[in-house]
Please model this.
Amino acid sequence: MSAYAEGIFILLLINAIAAMGVSLLTGFTGIFTLGHAAYLALGSYTTAILTLDYGIAWLPAVLAGGIVAMVVGYLIGLPTLKLMGDYYAIASIGLAESIRLILENWQSLTNGARGLAGIDTFTTLPVALSFFIVMAIAAFCLINGRFGRSLKACRDDHVAAALLGFDVAKIRVASLSISALYCGLAGGLYAGFISFIQPMMFDMLKSTEMTAVVVFGGLGSMSGCILGTTVITMVTELFRPISQYRMLIYGLVLVLVMVLRPEGMMGQHEIGGLLKRLFRRGGDRS
Amino acid sequence: MATLIQQIINGLSLGSIYALIAVGYSLVYSILMFSNFAHGGFLIIGGYFCYFALNSAGFNIWIAGFGALVGAGFAAVATERLTYKPIRERTSVTLYLLIASMGMNIVIENIFVIVAGGRFRALPPVIPTTPVHLFGNATTSALDLISLVTAFVFLGGLQLFLTKTKWGLAIRAAACDLRVAGLMGVNTSKLISIVFFVAGLLAAVGGIFLSVRYTLYPQLGMITIKAFVAAVIGGLGSLPGAVVGSLILGLSEMLTAGFLSSQLRDLVVFSLLVVTLIVRPTGLFGKDVKEKV
Model:
């Protein structure tokens, strides 16, 4: 594999980890977010600062990045997840922009808008791949288990879920924390891949891109969001030579998907389920 | 004291421009219940229309401005017809409209990146920016006063349109319930077009003033995020709320810039948003909608 292809593949895996986090929150819990780039930023800044300033090894630094993002997500979730509908999405824009601006203005720690350079490039293909596999298995176990069912219950009808004895507020906060953990880890890996980070990388466009990928793949489908990440990353990478038109095409793809197939590529199906159905149909014929 | 008055006038002037844009957000939200993020696109369409009408076609500011307003209005109607309408007919999930509007914003922005280039452009000096002395020693620019007056003229016009005309009545009815308004004989498809036309027109006014105040570039539309914040603080869907929220935002932004530090102004804006949402989730003037079980 050429170095370029390997780079794209690593980026793909990192994006997929972040997308799984957003999918857990938006697809499975039904909380729409427009600010998840902030958790990416927290993860990558924590990792970068720990490895650069304190000389800590990369693995604990990445894990610390995930944990910082998770704690911040939990603290943010407590007051804001009482908001229903569009209003949480709007609050998340404000929170994410606040976090980005704090990172930009905290000169002594984050070097401000100039960003942090010279981070060790520890995210090699095996590292990214093993992180991805572990996180994906965890995500699938999570959504197929008891917790996943309570998430879906809160998504489909939070009033009914509350009547059935689910603690809706607690479940929503837990979902945001886990989703922030995924994005924080992805951010740490991203810092170790690109070796240079600055606040501008984590602006609102990045946030909307993360959510758009999940919607594109299919809300409520974990494999759909991985597929969506693959397609969007490929589209943006393949069109890099005609960089002028890249964003235009990205926007058009987004609009066209919403017009033609708003439920996303996979809808609420998982690849496993589709294959099983296909297999069974083949079995009937023979 | 002089600085205080100066910053208050600046703040009101900036706030009134935000108000023009925020009212567009609120109008669309009150009818279709989604936040139209393509609004920033309408703003730069207005800005670029005006720029090219002034520079390439050599019109004077009145004709160029008028053309920009109508052009942006029709662009908004076209956006609605081409993208939002097919989605609305297919599903009632407003989330899909939200994502489509973000896509449209990226599309419009990048059409201008390709057609006009990403560089910064200054509008010719059509609107005077000379300093004006007020109350003895406070100094402000003529642009601030002109934009303040223009915003009030347009917002007043909108208020008259909404209260005195038949279509205004229909829009207010549709803001209560679009479906029922349709059942009562309102042509909802035409109504939505009118709402988008008005929203696009007001965005273009804001766009022209913002491109004189700052410069014109394809990402100028990002500034609408602040107008959006203002609309949310005032209560999405409420027009007086949008105006009051915008004035609060403009004032707090300019006072922060004047007395604390200009780097903190955005932070203040977004903190205001978060605090408002936590204390009063539907905004200052928002309707408290009790959930039906």
About this structure: Residues 2-32 of chain B form the longest helix (31 residues). DSSP finds eleven helices and two strands in chain B. The first strand of chain B starts at residue 131 and ends at 134. Chain B touches chain A through 46 residues (CB under 8 Å).
